[in-house]
Structures are given as structure tokens and as C-alpha cells.
Specification:
Length: about 375
């Protein structure tokens, strides 16, 4: 049975929630090294990452290995420009050992100029992979644009001796398009990372209560009176083949508060739905309360809410004050381990300097040390490194 559009009531992340952030020592990620880490793979920057999952949200495993999709670019002089050349990398990991398996998608398959973040699931046989991802830009463009569309493609996975390979990718198809009514159509030609609008980061979710399939995504509210109009959108699959999706109203709105609720995804724990996202201090509305760079969440008794902020504020895990930019773009796995990437280190609590050489000297561009969170009803905290 389809969800009625009228049955979806948008929940709100409000300034008073963020204003209540006080002592967040229980939500602080341990400080990592302030020294820029060595590249995991020579000559490559790596950032936003997500694991290959089963449809029910469990991380897929192959002979003890997990398979990851990670955005990558050459280690260029200005790390901020990496978004303009991003490709999805296929990587295998076991006990801290990482194996580079090359670009996930073959050259020329993507119907855009770059490949941005998404999610991936594998069928019950462990072979057919469906990748949901963000197509950024358009083919043949001579200047970087910030157009964003949600696409999907499927291919056959082969795995042996720590090496993964996906072949026979299908022609990418647009999953669902922004409607201009609830969600802005994002076709910007210019922008600055952190301040662009969003229609990206598709995250697959199967609701255990109904068995129906959904895509969550980072969106921007259409018709907002604020430039800080971030939201978390949702679309519902119209069949078991996942080849048709219907947009629904946003699950969560941060209108007037925050511009980007990035990489949203849901983990169900003890019958509660925890909706996670990442955001940064710089994308809060300047005159509104703002929170640290961190992992945030709201919790609800069902997929469609109503949602309330975890800890009363939304904050689940934050970088320490002594290294406020150290990690970013977190993904909470089914066992509550949290994966992210090393962003800027050795900065302390000083502001970011707008200088390419400074950024290169401080940018990590590798997977971050993982940590674990604990969840107890409406409460969450950093539990274990």
C-alpha cells in the first residue's frame, strides 16, 4: 500500500533545540592526531564513504571483508577543488587493512561530470549490487557546476582474496527528480562548498515495519523565505524492482536554521528510528544558534515520525574543541560503529584560512578512526573508540 502524501507530517529542527547545546563532553569524539595522516592510497584524496549493505541495513561481509564506496580525487594542490573531479572508489577493508579496487564505475558511464555520495545494497545472493548516487553536473561541461540529480545503477559483484570488482553495470537511470514544489530543483552553475543547495546523497532504507523501500536524501526546501533552508527528503519505491519512486514531503526541516543536513540515513534500534545526518557550524544561519561540526540525529517511533531531537538538541557526536574540524561526513553502521573521514587537522580552534596551500597542509583525505555510539531512547553519546 502506498503512503498517502497527506500522511507525511514534516518534523522540525529548530533554533531552540540547537540553543540547548551546552556541555557536550559525552558527545565528543576523542581527539585524533593533529598531524596530517599519510595518504591511504598514493596520490588520492578520499572522503565521503558508505558500506555495501544488505537491504535490511546490515553491513555485507565477504570472508570477513567489508566493501566500501568512497569519493576520491587526485591529491591536487587545493583540496577544496576535489568536488569538481570526484569519482566513486571501490575499496575492501578487513581488520584495518584497506585494498584499493579502483573506480567503482567505468569511464563514460556516469551521465554527469562527477560522481557524488550515495548508498549501495546487495541482493540476498550477495552478487547483484545496486548503487544509488548523486550525479553532479552534466557531460561535457567546461566549468564546474553544482547541478545535482539522484541516479541508480546495478552491476554484478565478484570478490576473492580481498579484491572486489563490479561489472556489467546497467545504464544509470534517474531515480526521482526534484519537483520544485517541496524540493528545490538544484541546477546552480556557481557555488562554494557548504553553501550550495542540495538534492543529493540518496540513502536506501527498508522499513522493517512495512517492508517498503525508501530513499532518503539531502534537500533544500522550495519556497522558503530563508537562505538556510535545508531539509531531509524522502521518496518511496513504487514496486519491488526499485525502478520507480514517488517523492514525499520532507521528513525533517531545518528551515531558517541550517543550510545542509548532509548524508541522512536511518538506523532502527529497539523499535525506534534514528535519523542521522552530518552538518557544520559554518552552515547554520549566522543570527541563529549554531552547533559544532558533528553527527546529529532525531528519533521517532516510526519512519514518518513525529521526530524529536536526540538529547533534546540533535547532537550525537562532535569534534573536540581542540580540533573542531578533525573529522566529517559520518555514517552510522548497523552495529553503531561510526565511519567518517579526516578533514582538517592541526587547526586547533582557529578559523579556517582561505588559502589553497593552507588547506593542503591541513587536509587529511583518508578514512578517520572509527568510534561507536550508544543509543538509549532519546539519548545518545559516544560510547567506545
Amino acid at each position: 500500500m502506498q503512503v498517502s502524501l497527506t500522511s507525511v507530517s514534516t518534523s522540525h529542527w529548530r533554533p531552540e533545540h540547537v540553543a540547548a547545546i551546552g556541555d557536550f563532553r559525552a558527545q565528543t569524539i576523542p581527539q585524533a592526531s593533529s598531524t596530517t595522516p599519510p595518504k591511504l592510497f598514493e596520490g588520492l584524496y578520499l572522503w565521503d564513504m558508505w558500506p555495501l549493505q544488505q537491504a535490511d541495513g546490515h553491513t555485507a561481509s565477504y570472508q570477513g571483508w567489508t566493501i566500501w564506496f568512497i569519493l576520491s580525487s587526485p591529491a591536487i594542490p587545493d583540496p577544496d577543488l576535489r568536488h569538481g573531479m570526484a569519482r566513486i572508489r571501490l575499496v575492501a577493508e578487513k581488520d584495518g587493512q584497506w585494498v584499493d579496487c579502483g573506480n567503482a564505475l567505468p569511464d563514460g558511464l556516469n551521465p554527469g561530470s562527477r560522481e557524488w555520495a550515495g548508498s549501495a545494497i546487495v541482493d540476498a545472493d550477495g552478487e547483484m549490487v545496486t548503487l544509488f548516487y548523486t550525479v553532479a553536473g552534466y557531460p561535457g561541461e567546461t566549468e564546474t557546476t553544482y547541478a545535482q540529480r539522484l541516479f541508480q545503477t546495478s552491476g554484478k559483484l565478484a570478490f576473492a582474496d580481498g579484491k572486489a570488482r563490479i561489472t556489467n553495470w546497467s545504464a544509470p537511470e534517474e531515480s526521482v527528480a526534484a519537483d520544485g514544489r517541496d524540493y528545490m530543483i538544484v541546477d546552480q552553475k556557481e557555488g562554494i562548498p557548504g553553501f550550495i543547495k542540495g538534492f543529493r546523497d540518496p540513502a536506501f532504507f527498508r522499513d522493517p515495519a512495512s517492508g517498503r523501500d525508501y530513499l532518503l536524501f539531502t534537500g533544500s526546501l522550495a519556497g522558503s523565505q530563508s537562505a538556510w533552508n535545508g531539509c531531509i527528503g524522502i521518496a518511496e519505491a513504487q514496486g519491488e524492482e526499485l525502478n520507480g519512486w514517488q517523492l514525499l514531503p520532507p521528513l525533517v526541516s531545518a528551515d531558517g536554521l541550517n543550510n545542509e543536513q548532509e548524508r541522512p540515513h536511518i538506523v532502527v534500534r529497539d523499535g525506534l528510528y534514528y535519523l542521522f545526518w552530518s552538518t557544520q557550524r559554518k552552515v547554520f544561519e549566522p543570527s541563529a544558534p549554531n552547533g559544532p561540526n558533528g553527527l546529529y540525529a532525531m528519533v521517532a517511533p516510526s519512519l514518518f515520525g513525529p521526530y524529536e531531537p536526540v538529547n533534546g538538541t540533535g547532537l550525537v557526536a562532535a569534534n573536540p574543541d581542540a580540533e573542531q574540524f578533525q573529522h566529517y561526513s559520518w555514517w552510522v553502521m548497523d552495529d553503531l560503529q561510526v565511519a567518517g573521514f579526516v578533514d582538517l587537522v592541526g587547526v586547533g580552534n582557529q578559523p579556517v584560512v582561505d588559502d589553497p596551500a593552507w588547506r593542503r597542509a591541513h587536509f587529511g583525505g583518508v578514512p578517520a578512526p572509527r568510534f561507536r555510539i550508544a543509543l538509549d531512547g532519546t539519548r545518545a553519546w559516544v560510547d567506545q573508540v
